[in-house]
């Protein structure tokens, strides 16, 4: 259980999430994420040299990725700050924040920036030498689509892991559609009053349309409306399956950042010194082969145990739910209402850029807790390889 790691109130941001092959399809995720973070720091009048360590979360290969950590540090303005690359599929944000909290807790550093960024669009196509290939043929790999479609250990696609959980637990197509619709309705709450909730944490991004034109993206791009009729009309992705394209997430592009520091520095940077955000605990899990959707539960249970809390103590729950079955299974196992969490939306609606997904959900959880007058926040999510990670924060 952490005692020294804090997040300043509003010491974080998320960019809009942009559906893949959209407006951010040609941006290098590392340089674009670092540039966005630099502009965000400038808007706060914060000197990036205040950091003594940067965690760069990235899962999809980008040009110059070999230099990723220190390159990102330099681009955001911390030219003398070391950086490290963290890549753990969908739990990258959770791991970056956890590692930053560990550094604060042990005194390894005093003020860390966790920058999570990814571009699923135009994913790299890697060619590997194959000396034994007939006629000198090479081994090739598509970083995005091949990994979505096949886990080398589990032997299945990601969606098949969710369907395996559906088959084992009896989750129905109707339940999956109902959760997908509920999550979209919750997302619309974040758009109310001219996107009042999203504007609490979302930072616009700028891209160059031409030499004379700059495009500003202020809101999520590519979110598709869900209706009862629309969801019912969709065919299952896998024959006989419970998930349609409306009941699963979609690849996206975007970035986010979270400052992790000690109590005094968090107070100094906080936009409201009466609000305190403490990182309490971290949980992780790996479940049986090809049942990824189940991992959200033991990861959350570990985090709760370490924080000496029960699920009933948690005021705000956010989950990374690439498939509707994730939330249905989680609610059933934790004995909570599946309609009662993921307020203001989740990754099943606004997309999954991989590394920054968990970070945005954690940020949304903090802001929701602030609106509710404080309380415990639980984030949990699955990740490739039948793993999961969870984080608990206290907002007071």
Describe this structure in words.
There is one protein chain. The protein is an alpha+beta fold. It has two domains: 12-122 and 249-269, Thiolase/Chalcone synthase (Peroxisomal Thiolase, Chain A, domain 1); 158-222 and 276-395, Peroxisomal Thiolase, Chain A, domain 1, CATH 3.40.47. The protein contains twelve helices and 14 strands. Strands 1, 2, 3, 4, 5 and 10 form a six-stranded mixed β-sheet that branches. The chain has a four-stranded mixed β-sheet with strand order 11-14-13-12. Strand 13 (375-383) and strand 14 (387-395) form a beta hairpin. Helix 1 (29-43) packs parallel to helix 2 (68-75) and helix 6 (173-195) packs across helix 10 (324-334). It is globular.
Describe the secondary-structure layout.
Layout: E1 12-14, E2 18-19, H1 29-43, E3 53-57, H2 68-75, E4 83-86, H3 92-106, E5 111-119, E6 125-128, E7 139-142, H4 145-149, H5 158-169, H6 173-195, E8 205-208, E9 214-217, H7 228-233, E10 252-261, H8 263-269, E11 277-286, H9 296-307, E12 314-320, H10 324-334, H11 347-350, H12 357-371, E13 375-383, E14 387-395
Parallel strand pairs: 3-4, 3-5, 12-13
Antiparallel strand pairs: 1-10, 2-10, 5-10, 6-7, 8-9, 11-14, 13-14
Helix pairs in contact: 1-2, 6-10
Percent in strands: 15-25%
Question: How many helices in DSSP terms?
Answer: 12
How many angstroms separate the termini?
Answer: 17 Å
CATH superfamily of the largest domain: Thiolase/Chalcone synthase
Order of helices and strands: EEHEHEHEEEHHHEEHEHEHEHHHEE
Q: Could you say what the CATH architecture of the largest domain is?
A: 3-Layer(aba) Sandwich
Q: What is the domain total for the residues?
A: 2
Unreliable spans: none
Mean pLDDT: 97
CATH class assignment of the largest domain: Alpha Beta
How is the biggest beta sheet arranged?
Answer: 6 strands, mixed
Estimate the helix proportion, in percent: 25-40%
As for the CATH topology of the largest domain, it is: Peroxisomal Thiolase, Chain A, domain 1
